[in-house]
Amino acid sequence: MNFKAITITDIAKALNISASTVSKALSDSYEISAKTKQIVLTYAREHNYRPNPNAISLKFGSSLSIGIVIPSIQNQFFAQIIDGIESVAHDEGFTVIIAQTHESYDMEVKSIQQLTHRAIDGLLISQSSETFDVSHLENLRSKGLPMVFFDRVSDQIDTHKVVTDNFQGALNATQHLFDNNYSRIAHITGPEGLSITTDRLNGYRQAHAQNKTQVTADYIKHCSYTNNNVAEIERAVHELLQLPDRPDAIFATSDTITSTVLLLLNKLGIKIPGQMAVIGFTNSSFAAVLAPPLTSVFQPGFLMGQKAARLLLSLVKSKKAVTEFETVVLPMQLIVRESSSVSIQV
Amino acid sequence: MNFKAITITDIAKALNISASTVSKALSDSYEISAKTKQIVLTYAREHNYRPNPNAISLKFGSSLSIGIVIPSIQNQFFAQIIDGIESVAHDEGFTVIIAQTHESYDMEVKSIQQLTHRAIDGLLISQSSETFDVSHLENLRSKGLPMVFFDRVSDQIDTHKVVTDNFQGALNATQHLFDNNYSRIAHITGPEGLSITTDRLNGYRQAHAQNKTQVTADYIKHCSYTNNNVAEIERAVHELLQLPDRPDAIFATSDTITSTVLLLLNKLGIKIPGQMAVIGFTNSSFAAVLAPPLTSVFQPGFLMGQKAARLLLSLVKSKKAVTEFETVVLPMQLIVRESSSVSIQV
DNA sequence: TTGAAAGCGATACCAC
DNA sequence: GTGGTATCGCTTTCAA
To answer: Domain A166-299+334-340: which CATH class?
Structure first.
């Protein structure tokens, strides 16, 4: 089976004129008579002509498309970012091509090769948690590929970046727990090495400093963000629960970590927030109807996507090389619900 | 700024040989000497050569890529389907291009035009809820574009289809409510016209027939699946609650509808399942930790994506026109939790 | 064993 | 006003 769309040559043959005339007529060139334009445009519309983007890309080395590299589409936060990117890109006539890394460095390298050879005009990327060596990206950037980082950024590459205020978000969440009389606060977060992990950990630490409380190393657990991380999370929770000085609150990141933590606590019959307060990072609409309603840090995904796309398109359209880059920091929102209500234990 | 990847001509020039020799060497042609191959391959690897897909697509009218058209990436069910599709497509060397319709007919038409002119080899589609006229699809199919429908299918187009057993899923969910002593069962579902809406409604009706219970028209509410449907859902719930013969159970579809229903019931202080049982259609990992844990119909998204992709690739690879099509029906799973526990009211 | 040339679709420079 | 031709990167005859 083979499918072929209508081309300029098809139109030219059908109307018994040359391909160049058709091309010019379609682009409304002043060289072409009104009558010819009329005929060509009518025929083109009737036969649903659309230029072949592959030919255009080949011809101009530009494709009016941008690549997006994210860890996983299943994460609602990233899905919202994509929607934000698309809303801007489509307005400017750009198509978007999405590639997932599933938290694998190899997949990231492969996806990016795929995308760049598709002649994308720019790249939006949130790194995989396995990515430490960024030479594959630095390589492209130095060759002039416009690139913008979002959410998970690298400090080794100088370009525009858009992040949420992970430090402040974690600080606020942790401080909120202190304010509500919790003092033994555990933090279950993503793998070390990620910018978001570091920033959140720093916020968590800062809150402890503010409250003149020592950070307990055993209270900090790193889990991977891959699909099969449930066992890891379960182990982390069990270890926390078995500590002699058991935490009275858990501050968790990501949807999977948060929902798994809640499931375990419920299963063990641990009352939330009575015996254990919980705060999560989540954009899920279900947060408000969890048992109990979950205090959560909400990240403006759609907005982040829009900002990142605008910055990328400004790079793509810039005639001269850009050397001054900015890092946009978007505020997070702490939405307080019952899961972190004032502790009555102390 | 302009970014260019290395081409066959670049390699040819650098090595002082012809482009055709390079091309053949890269494809390991028997015409080329081992030594030349060695030199070319080494150089190509070192300089990270990858063929330009636009050139390939233009040359062969095939792109080793397939298009996916879905309503929204934010729906976790569709995100899972995409992962399923990718897992199959990547294994076979195909790239995937995703387009969202956001439930708009115009966006659907536009996206599909975009995709087909990118020389995709096949199309996987789940229709928008606004799509009644399918001539844009029939057009492509008749011209030979391999096409597979999934989830939301059209009965006006003859091709492979993959669906979940919406009839059985709705039947089981409704029957489960009857079994647990509920008899005034409301159904809040998607817009009329969608295959999934009809099938679920039929399952709901069948359950009523089995239990010799009349279906009450006022108990059936249709809401759109767009992003801004909260007001609609709120109105539907309020109307249900104000009925003289108020329902004692709600069977809802989709994540937004389900979470909004739960939020409203909680806000109004209506006990679940004491005063109102709830069953939802959701794949969210949060279902188990909702207040109360939600009985839900789980749809095998990943599997659906895999099946659909395999069927599409079989069409793409088939040398002769395929005229016998199949409709794969995947079973759903009713996961029983507290939100539909046995009623003690009756 | 290697290379020159045609062609995929669209555009732009030049002729006419 | 219109049409021929080169070009983008790649593959595939065909010729050397």
So the answer is: alpha beta
